[in-house]
Amino acid sequence: MEREKYFLISVTLLLIILDIFTDVGHANSQNVQRVMESLGRGLVALRVDSNKVYISWRMLASDPENVAFNIYRITDTSAPVKLNNAPLEATNFIDTTADLTKTNVYFIRPVINGVELEPSVPFALPANAPIKNYLSIPLRQDAVNFLGQVQGARLAGVGDLDGDGEYEFVVKRGDQDLDPSQATYPTYRPLETYKLEAYDINGTFMWRVDLGINIRPGIWYSPFVVYDLDCDGRAEVVTKIGDGAKILTSSGEIIDLGDINGDGILNYTDNLGRQYFGPEYFAIIDGSSGRVLAIGDWIPMISWHYWGDDYGNRAHRHYLGIAYVDGYMPSLIVARGTYTELYMDVWNWRNNTLTKVWSWHRSGGGAFHNIRVGDVDGDGKDEIIHGSIAIDNNGVTIWVTGQGHGDRFHLTDVDPDRPGLEIWYVQERPGVNFYGVHLRDAQTGELIWGRSGPGFGDQDIGRGLVADIDPRYPGLECWATRGYLYSAKGEEIGPLPPQCNFGIWWDDDLLREHLDATTISKWDYNAGKFNIILVMDGCEVGSRNAPLGYGDILGDWREEVWYIDSAKRELRIYVTTIPTPTRLTTLMHDPIYRLSVSQETVGYMQSTQLGFYLGVSTEVGGEGYKKKVFSIPPEVAWVIPVTLSFLIGLLFGFIVKRTFKLLMLILILLGILIGFFYVTIIFQDIYESAMAILPKIIGYESALINILPYMLVAFAVGLLIGLWKG
User: Fold this and answer.
1) Is 549 left (phi over 0), alpha (psi -120 to 50) or beta?
2) Could you report the per-residue pLDDT of 457-472, keeping only the tens digit for each?
3) Which side of the chain, N or C, has fewer Cβ within a 10 Å radius?
4) How far apart are CA 56 and CA 694, in angstroms?
């Protein structure tokens, strides 16, 4: 009787665990299984007045809803002083009691159910700090062009390079931005090589990679992304790279990649710096040291003519990206082609091994000047929106709009009244009878509404944007460089805004502001115009009136923006210092938003977008927002596989102990039947079944490898108990 009781208990527990595991594996959530970036509090403090310090920090998706915060200050060597009376619900604070002639160090402690947790990484405000709304990172002055002049910067990506939970910067140093269409000599000859330099938030230089002479200094020749590909807590940097690239590591060692393939050739370019033959590569670089971890083959060029011209314009359109195609860990996207032939490879970097997952090809063009990534069908795995084409997580084309090429498009929840996500497209002369601007269902590609005819289909509409800028209408407003301001339903609700570049959350409400060049503006929906609220003086823009980058990388949920100063001496990270009562988790824990930030260093920079609606109608702090960005905390996720291993071992032990004689008889009988050919085992069928299951096992292998010993021990313990008590 005792044995039957243990048996029933173990079976019941196993079924409960399996039910939970199944729910986790199949729930309609964007982030049920995927590994979430582990972030710290991103604490930042800026002096904003003669006696005021603005302090801001992150709320994480792993925080419970009732989390609050205490904030502390250490002045010089004095003991910490708590600045708030009761735990704070907000994630920003104004300190008016600091002695600013002295060094002040701030830190916060989360408070859950009245219990203070561990302190955050502190932020030090130096004595007599200047009044300013940005952080400064000094840039090295030995990054020079062929004439010995100090180089500026084109882009700067972010990632946690050293595993401390805070973001570092990878800056692309250079001044030229040669386009593949520019083919006049000597006007468009290279005067420099691009260099990637890594810096931490405190201004410490980490490493440099000189991409070499085979990478022409321009956006389309030099894509790079910063992301933690193997989920070890430290981001890698992936870049297109060529023979002769040189690396200055964090230890000061200089490494020359030299002749990568050993063919005796180091330079594959013509007098305009365009590579016209030979191998092309991408490199995976260790984020903390700058050392090359692996080199992979780029999609082959074949020849310029193959892509449709004789000067390399169409051949040299290169993309990189990140997608969670298995729903759990990030994969690397490598793509080539925009206008004619389109190729894409997806790779995994796991366990120090580079493996190709799948390849995709389509003729006829239709790509845009960047890609968007997100789970558009609710299966937990990312689809890749390659302009007018949606590609499933397995490399199969889902749908094609048929509208051809355009410059910009936006994947987000434009209309919260509709299920799922939408895509706002602007096109480049698709034809007078086609749509110049249109909104489509992201899952099916079906048209929701659009505008065609003269003035739309026959125009190159270079820019478009979606953002909640008018609180009188539900959802996000849509506009482009043609037409009017449209509601999410397609209604004409106002005059065409004169600017159309990037949306940014900057002030104290949930309406979005507009970022163009070095100016942030607020839409006055009554007057039908933008009002400037901030000009970032003394800064240079990157390509096409874009900053070097922007996103929610510090402090609360609002977005920072970064530039190089006009003297080329520092990277400036501008931080809003406007207090807000609105409380949201960091936007970087939303999957679609995080990937949109990572895409800023590829192609034409596009506006960041979320995987859910955020605007004046959003109920902030609600459980719905939390569910969209997080499920099982990673620090306790190991419990499920270890417990499951124990229960499987326990159940297996019970079965073996209680049915040992029966199992032996079955095996003997099966052997006799096989021996007399009454039963045939077809090994090909077994092999095919194994090959169908193996990819699923491999998909989880990287995630489980670290806890595999614990799972084996748990299984062995369960097995022994089952054999003993069975």
Assistant:
1) left
2) 999 999 999 999 999 9
3) N
4) 47
